[in-house]
Design goal:
Length: about 400
């Protein structure tokens, strides 16, 4: 079941990173500013945020597979619409929003479909593999989108992104058991999330995931563009262009899944809070200097990007497994909905802040601007030791 849901997850995400991968092409073709480009990249998360609280909470009441199937159809419609009708800023904004809403109905409801069938350590490990496969899905999306976009034009990447979710829907419908639903108390309302925030341990995981998502999705959204800029500073003969940068970005993304699973195993052994704060701090510190390295040899830039991505994913599965483990069984869908909503709210903000800083600091042909933009997403992780100290003080006084 874990394998089925992981493959389906990767298929459902084929359109997810297509825009970010082909961002240099869109900026040139549509004359987008960095702020506009960042807003289009971030609006998918607004679509996700709109859909996920309702759709994830519904999985406590109806078979989660039904939610998953409908969301796969929505993803397919968004990608097909982008391929056929996107012509500039506003139309791209709309279809990216739809693609994000589709992801909101597949990612966490898909995890609910899987974890409903498991308990205990098996549930935590299945969660780790599923969360890790978000990186696999991103890598597949980057690689296929870059290859198709460079050779057949960007609409081809989105046509593939419209087809793959339908295959995922068929897999889940045929191969996965029904999701578990439980009768809700008469006083429980679908979108009443106060009990979720009232649970102190769950609340910490939710806010931790927000910081994680802010840095991660900003880096993913601007990774290809940064690699293209870095390649432009290299000697003649260095691999450059969208296709070469997309291939490198796909490899960088593949550093995440292994680290996500490893981080969860370390959390099980050494303590979840300790491991989460450790990886947050290390990734944040590296992000604060990463952009300034654009002019270094390409192998150094690539290695640092791999390391940064791996460190960012070190706390991913540990956070998600912790949130699920802290949630009462009858509210697991609601907890996942809030968890995703808050996390992807930060994911919406990250790419936009990155683009705004890039514009204000001199544009995407300035190494200083890239350095400050990366620092704007790393600063919160770098301050993780302060947060941990405050957390320990508050926890001690309660």
């Amino acid at each position: 079941m874990t394998a089925i849901m992981c493959v389906a997850e990767a298929l459902s995400m084929v359109a997810f990173a297509a825009y970010a991968t082909l961002l240099p092409l869109f900026q040139k073709e549509w004359s987008l500013t960095n702020t506009e480009a960042g807003l289009i990249g971030g609006i998918a998360f607004a679509g996700y945020m709109t859909a996920v609280p309702v759709l994830s909470a519904l999985t406590d009441r109806v078979d989660s597979r039904r939610i998953y199937l409908g969301a796969c159809g929505l993803s397919a419609l968004g990608a097909a619409g982008f391929a056929l009708f996107a012509q500039g800023f506003w139309s791209a904004l709309f279809f990216q929003f739809v693609i994000g809403a589709g992801l909101g109905g597949t990612y966490m409801p898909g995890l609910k479909t899987l974890t409903d069938q498991l308990e205990g350590p098996a549930q935590a490990r299945a969660t780790a593999f599923y969360a890790a496969c978000f990186g696999v899905g991103s890598s597949v999306s980057i690689l296929l989108s870059g290859w198709l976009g460079a050779r057949h034009g960007w609409p081809a990447a989105f046509i593939l992104g419209a087809t793959a979710p339908l295959i995922a829907a068929a897999m889940v419908n045929v191969l996965m058991p029904r999701g578990r639903t439980r009768a809700q108390p008469a006083t429980t309302k679908l979108l009443d999330f106060r009990p979720v925030f009232a649970h102190r341990t769950t609340r910490y995981y939710i806010f931790g995931y927000a910081l994680h998502s802010y840095e991660l999705f900003a880096q993913r959204g601007w990774m290809v563009a940064f690699l293209v800029y870095s390649a432009s500073l290299q000697p003649a003969g260095t691999v450059a262009g969208v296709l070469g940068a997309a291939a490198l970005a796909a490899i960088i993304n593949l550093c995440g899944p292994l680290m996500s699973v490893t981080g969860n195993e370390l959390a099980l052994r050494f303590g979840r809070t300790r491991i989460i704060f450790l990886f947050m701090c290390l990734s944040g510190l590296l992000a604060c200097v990463l952009g300034f390295t654009a002019g270094l040899p390409s192998v150094v830039v690539f290695t640092l990007m791999c390391l940064h991505h791996a460190l960012m994913l070190g706390d991913s599965a540990a956070l998600t497994a912790g949130a699920i483990g802290s949630a009462p069984a009858e509210r697991r869908g609601a907890v996942l909905g809030v968890y995703s909503f808050v996390g992807f709210s930060a994911a919406l903000t990250g790419p936009l802040v990155f683009g705004v800083v890039l514009d204000l600091a001199g544009g995407n042909q300035s190494t200083l601007a890239w350095g400050l933009a990366f620092a704007s997403i790393g600063i919160f992780g770098a301050l993780a030791p302060v947060a941990r100290a405050l957390h320990a003080k508050v926890y001690k006084n309660l």
